[in-house]
Amino acid sequence: MIWNKHYECMEREELRKVQGERLQELVKRVYDAVPFYKMQLQKKGIEPGDIKDIEDLKKLPFTTKQDLRDNYPFGLFALPQSDIVRFHASSGTTGKPTVVGYTHNDIQMWSEVVARSLTMADVTKSDIIQVAYGYGLFTGGLGLHYGAEKVGASVIPISGGNTKKQLQLLEDFGSTVIACTPSYAAYLGESLEEEKIDPGKIKLRAGIFGAEPWTTEMRSQIEQLLGIKAFDIYGLTEIIGPGVSMECHFQRGMHIFEDHFIPEIINPETEEVLPYGELGELVFTTVTKEAMPLIRYRTRDLTRLHAETCECGRTLVRMEKCVGRSDDMLIIRGVNVFPSQVESVLLEMSETKPHYLIVVNRENNLDTLEIQVEVEEEFFSDEVKELEGLRQRIKSNISSTLGISAIIRLVEPGTIERSMGKAKRVVDNRNIQ
Ligand code: DLL
Q1: pLDDT in tens, 119-161
Q2: Which atom of ligand 1 is nearest to the CA of 235?
Q3: Is residue 253 lining ligand 1, measured as CB closer than 6 Å?
Q4: Which CATH number fits domain 1-327: 3.10.580.10, 3.40.710.10, 3.30.470.20, 3.40.50.12780?
């Protein structure tokens, strides 16, 4: 089923017309209401009347995370506080959080895009959905919650963590769908085994996983552990939260809801717009958001876009799984390394579990890369010779994939700290001086 056939299957030419009209209106709106945007547009010598169709998007200035920080907390809002019905925020690693606001209409639009997303995983009113993303300032919990209610599913607002309770409700309430981060899904799967819960008693059939990068290898492991089909959902606080894009059954990328969020891919260094199919930084313009619309917001997520119509019938552009964020990329002895590359190598092997940690150190001015990964229980009881063989195989696969050598540390199951939300995969000790 398709939640909103009109927009999800619209001819691309027609969609571009809709985007153009909405863009024109957006630029007028922010020019009058947001001093920051008025200044940015004036700096480029642009008047709202200069924006006539979607082709003019590329004339507009970019917005960055730093701009949001500089205007903390409400400086980019286009409406007064009395029109705002909700705040959310994402906590950065340093400093102040990034704050966003929603009007009543924004919440409606958000529920609509999450409803479209859930429908891609065949979620209907016959489903019981356990929302195990965190509720609160983080957008995951409430975002999925409103979308699931819009679809008419029965929502269990359990939030993140409290694993024993999660398992109990899975069993007792008969949840058919679970929404959480992929790393937490892997942990839940493993806990099911540990608690010796009979998989026959669990009715789960689908998982809505996102909020952090995860590989197709991780997908297979989660699907096996939980006996479900795992779907990827993408979003970010600044744009709306979850529901910016989501993959359908064909799983050939995540469909972006382009009638609300216009995507572009740019070369992060030159800011040049790249054609479909090329890898670069994802940029979004929110054309319908009222409280805090953003023009050409640089997400720092790296991916590719594809525009061919999908077998599901949707004409919406698809984005590939994110390779990572430009600011997650590690440069180790001059070589670019993404944690997702390490994950792919590790999880291709059946002996390893989906729990790992990348530790970077600097010794005598030389960077060292250490990869800790948990190994299936049975291997630990096996002969040392076999463990050593496994270690060597991982070492050689890492070296041929990344182009640099790494210290591989095989650790016992349960050693690496579990996360109830976004997993911490990297410890970079080089910056801590
Ligand atoms: O993580 C929103 C969300 C909640 C998305 C629940 C999906 C499910 P932030 O905390 O602002 O918002 O983090 C946004 O997380 O720029 C990406 O780097 C990363 N991210 C989100 N979804 C995915 C995904 C939420 N499916 C940042 N794959 C984004 C890879 C993802 N990375």
Answers
A1: 999 999 999 999 999 999 999 999 999 999 999 999 999 999 9
A2: 5
A3: no
A4: 3.40.50.12780
Q: Was domain 335-428 assigned CATH 3.90.180.10?
A: no
pTM of the model: 0.95
Q: For residue 41, what are the CA distances in angstroms to 135, 162, 411?
A: 37, 48, 54
Nearest CA to ligand 1 atom 15: 211
Rounded to whole angstroms, the Cα distance separating 16 from 160 reads: 39
CA of 419 to the centre of ligand 1 (A): 15
- The answer to whether the CB of 231 falls within 8 A of the CB of 219 is no
Amino acid at the residue 3 = W
- Residue among 212, 239, 320, 424 to mutate when testing ligand 1 (max atoms within 8 A of CB): 212
Scan for tokens 């571009």, then name that residue. Answer: 16
Q: DSSP class of residue 320?
A: P
Task: Indicate the residue type of 75.
Answer: G
- Give how far Cα 77 sits from Cα of 69, 72, 99, 259, Å: 13, 10, 10, 21
| Residue 362 CB less than 6 A away from ligand 1 | no
Cα distance between residue 154 and residue 402, in whole Å: 45
Is residue 394 a contact partner of residue 346, using CB atoms and an 8 Å limit? yes
